Amino acid sequence: MDISNKQSGRSNDEEKILNGPIKPISKAANKIIYNQMEKSVCKIFGDNEKVGTGFLSKIPFPDELNLLPVLITTNNILNEKDLLNNIKISFDDDKNVKIIKFLPERKIYSSFEYDTTIIEIFPEKDDIKSFLDIELSLEKEYLKEQVYTLQYPKGKYCSVSHGSIISIDEFNIAHNCSTETGSSGGPIILLNNFKVIGIYKGSKKSNLEINFGTLLKFPINEFTKKFSKINRKFLILVLGKPGVGKSVLAHEILKKPCKENIFRRNEIEFIENESDNPNFSFLIPGNPEIYIPDAFNIMFKNALNYINDKFKTKQPENYIDCIWFCLTGRRFEQSEVESIKFLKEKYSKIPLLLVYTRALYMEMVDSFQKYIKELFNLEMIPVLAKKVLFPNGVEVKPYGLDILLAETIKNCKVKREIFNN
Question: What is the mean pLDDT of residues 366-376?
Fold first, then answer.
């Protein structure tokens, strides 16, 4: 059951294997556990000479294609005040000591309730390459499942302790792996797949044989809510042919001056509201050429490239909360039909609203609306962004903006709820 001294390079006195109630495990399993101890579990030097345990993992992050590398420990070892300074960690024998520098761009989360701290890691800057796999789908069937914890008891060598899950209550997980002072922050790992399910945080004085941890899916969910799209303004991608009034519409909603009659080509216009009402930002890609059949696809690709550069993300479509496809005139062009089909099929998770701009004549709007309903099963929202004054003195006031905004907000909230859960 124990990791061999030959593998670890320690004497019998140095080899600290904290045994627990578990069936013998294979040499192959011992090898995996030793590799985890050596490369992914670290000693953390907290404030006031506190020493605890931490581990390196990669967690799901809604805005990213790849998993996000992080260092995880307890709030007791590293709290928000500690995180304003550089963090010292070491691997096993203190010969491999690393400094995790305080950088404002790091995503940092610390919760007293969950007793968990999560710190974003930059593998190249921090010279860290090895991470533990994580399991976030833990359910009641894992009760009595065999687990082990990796830890630095009394701040000495990294050790393994075996046991099993006793109970799961909300975000708390009880287990009987033995622990010591300094074990706080260590990963609780399923033996059947070697994946982390929780973080050890302590035991009750009334029963020292039962230890408690936090199921990681709860603090990780809070972490992603804090740093993902939820804290940004709703990002609306506005597509449409030249001259349909995309910029005018966005500027009128945000009450910003707009330079009219400028057909931008291969440019991106990003308009953000300084206030929270409405809580929008608009991304309007310029039209490459008026008569290029693939113009809308080029506009969409340019928008994704812009988002990728601005937000440093590998999955830019997750940042788009809603698409406005602006239409005007008396008929569809084939490029518009194909582009709407493309958006509905390939990016079905992004809400798509068809906006009929410059809607002066309702009889034409009604006819177009019926055609759109039959073709796409979508409703069209008629809008007039600015008032129109005819030579004969007849004035048509703006309308439709409130309906458009209400429908957009509703769809944006649904989109974010899907991606943040």
Answer: 80
Question: Each residue of 214-262: pLDDT tens digit?
Answer: 999 899 988 887 776 555 788 999 999 888 888 889 888 888 776 654 5
Q: In the predicted model, what is the mean pLDDT of residues 346-352?
A: 91
Domain boundaries, the chain: 5-225, 232-420
Domain 232-420 has CATH 3.40.50.300: yes
**Surface-to-core class of residue 125, CB atoms within 10 Å of its CB (0-12 exposed, 13-18 middle, 19+ buried):** exposed
Span 5-225: which CATH code? 2.40.10.120
pLDDT tens by residue, 43-100: 998 777 788 999 999 988 765 656 889 999 999 898 888 888 888 898 866 677 889 8
